[in-house]
Amino acid sequence: MFFVRTASERDLEKVRALLAETWHATYDTFYGAEKVNELTAKWHSIEALRARLQRKHSEFVVADNGRELAGMGYAAMSESLEKTAVLHQLYVLPKHQRHGVGRDMFAELETCFPDAERMRVEVEPQNLHALAFYRAHGFVEVAKNIQLRRRAVRHTGAHPGKAPFLTFHAASMRTQALRPRDAGERPEPGAESLDKAKAARHKRGARF
Predict the structure, then answer these.
(1) How far apart, in whole angstroms, are the C-alpha atoms of residue 117 and residue 110?
(2) What would the pLDDT profile of 30-78 be if each residue is shown by its tens digit?
(3) Taking a C-beta distance cutoff of 8 angstroms, is the pair 138, 109 a contact?
(4) Following CA atoms 37, 135, 2, 205 in sequence, which dihedral angle do they give, to the nearest 10 degrees?
(5) Which of these, 78, 104, 74, 112, lies nearest to 90 by C-alpha position?
(6) Which of the residues 21, 138, 197, 208 has the least number of beta carbons within 10 Å of its own beta carbon?
(7) Among the residues of the chain, which ranges form H helices?
(8) Distance between CA 132 and CA 194 in Å, rounded?
(9) How many CB atoms lie within 10 A of CB 63?
(10) How confident is the model at residue 167 (pLDDT cuts 50, 70, 90)?
(11) How confident is residue 92, by pLDDT bands cut at 50, 70 and 90?
């Protein structure tokens, strides 16, 4: 069983390796293995991960079973959008996908920003699994980010394709928390229950 907890400095090397594996599994078909290598070397270096770990008004979590990390997630309050938390990363190793790991990390992250009224994420439109996941968790498309697409193409050299990156957000953190998790699974607890669980964890001095 994997438990979600806040990441620490000692996790960064494992997180770096996890991101390299999941990025190759997800993006090689879009951008090519060589370009994915370049991107992960830059964006997922220990220095880059440490900067995220130390950023104020953010939360960096991992899914840990005591032997390995199955996934990681990172979100932060937006510096430009009012009362908006931005989900920057949510990745699960391929062998542990479809077992609720991503769902549990997401459920933890959404409780970490009491001042946020919405959560936003930008998704590669060809990443159908990610699109399905976020739609199942209450996100709706609000924009097509042409500039993000151009920036990604400039960094990767990949063909831009026809579609820009899609921007999604949940209308409200409360609405999002009340939606069912996945088809066939029991609904997530209501926002009140999530708030109570979070308060209890903080009172105990631990996340789980």
Answers:
(1) 10
(2) 889 999 999 999 999 999 999 999 999 999 999 999 999 999 999 999 9
(3) no
(4) 110
(5) 74
(6) 208
(7) 12-31, 33-43, 46-54, 101-109, 128-136, 146-156, 173-178, 191-204
(8) 23
(9) 26
(10) low
(11) very high
More confident residue, 113 or 189: 113
Q: Is the pLDDT of residue 133 over 60?
A: yes
- Separation CA 58–CA 37 (nearest Å): 26
**Predicted model pTM:** 0.73
Mapped onto helix, strand or coil, the DSSP state of residue 131 is: helix
Of 155 and 21, more confident: 21
Query: Do the beta carbons of residue 44 and residue 18 sit within 8 Å?
Result: no
Beta strands at 118-123 and 165-170: parallel, antiparallel or unpaired: antiparallel
Reading the block at residue 188, the tokens are 């997530």
HSE-up (13 A, CA, CB side) for residue 166: 19
